Amino acid sequence: MSDDENGVAAESVVDQLRDRISSGALAPGTPLRDAALAEDFGVSRNTLREAVRLLVHEGLAVHQLYKGATVKRLSVADVHDIYAARRALELRAVEHSFSASQEALDALDVPVSAAERSAAADQWNATGTRSLDFHRAIVRLLGSERLDSFFRTTVAQLRLAFAEAPHEPEFQRHWVERDRELCDLLRSGHRTQAAAALTRYLDDSERLIVDLVRAAQQRRA
Fold first, then answer.
1. Residues 6+ apart with CB under 8 A from 191
2. In whole angstroms, what is the distance from residue 107 CA to residue 176 CA?
3. How many other C-beta atoms are found inside a 10 Å radius of the C-beta of residue 101?
4. Residues contacting residue 182 through CB under 8 Å, at least 6 positions apart
5. Residue 6 — pLDDT band, cuts 50, 70, 90?
6. CB-neighbour burial class of residue 51 (10 A; exposed 0-12, middle 13-18, buried 19+)
């Protein structure tokens, strides 16, 4: 395999690993073992190692001396950084939503309705995934593929923080109604109210996740 082909294969593996993290299938601290994952994805171990190197660069994995790579556990500083990015992108997208088509605004309902169905079925992991899909859809209102790609990684990092919640139903249930409120405000063109609701949402979410990460650090100490 040429260097170019190896690079393309590694990027494909990164995409799939990132999706597994975003869906909650790979939890923080999970070992990323070369042999098993190379076989799983049908690639060489060199390709898998390059994919893991890229995942480390994205802040989704870490290398530990003598232990290899694992899915990253977030620090409190990581959480603050993630929320700085969320405020910059999501609040800008809300402000920019006046230029979005009604079709794009109505598409926001798809992940929110899916989250509501998952919550009703007590499928809380799926509820969290659909909520993150909704916030990715908000950023897509900006119409920038570059920002969409950046935010895809940000969402995967955020999912690592979700994994620290000791009781997932209690954690996820809180956000279903608030996603619905935000979705309906955006679809109806109430941007000022949507921006205020999103600001409260992000402030509350950041405080809660910081507390979760600190509590998890204390449990592991």
1. 94, 95, 97, 98, 185
2. 17
3. 9
4. 138, 194, 197, 198, 201
5. low
6. buried
pLDDT, tens only, 89-122: 999 999 999 999 999 999 999 999 999 999 999 9
Exposed, middle or buried: residue 121 (CB in 10 Å: 0-12, 13-18, 19+)?
exposed
Contact 38, 13 (CB under 8 A): no
- Partnered with residue 64 across adjacent β-strands are 68
In a 3-state reduction of DSSP, which class is residue 166? coil
How far, in Å, CA of 174 to CA of 195, rounded?
19
The pair of structure tokens assigned to 35 is 């042999």
Residue 79: CB atoms within 10 Å? 25
pLDDT at position 24 is: 85
- Which of 40, 38, 28 shows the shortest CA–CA distance to 64? 28
**Coil, strand, or helix at residue 61?**
strand
- Residue 35, burial from CB neighbour count under 10 angstroms (0-12, 13-18, 19+): exposed
> Which residues, 6+ apart, have CB-to-CB distance to 78 below 8 Å?
59, 157, 161, 213
Count of residues for the chain? 221
Is pLDDT of 221 > 80? no
